Amino acid sequence: MAAGVPTELHVHPGSYHAGENLAPDSALAKRIWATRLGALQRAL
Known about the structure:
Layout: H1 27-43
């Protein structure tokens, strides 16, 4: 961000780093993956 690079920050309360891999069918994991894929689509 300080270097002027487009950046997104998403905070998912109730989760921790890579937690979406432990319960991939949970609503939270689905929301995390949708957010992640959306960011990639916008960037590319």
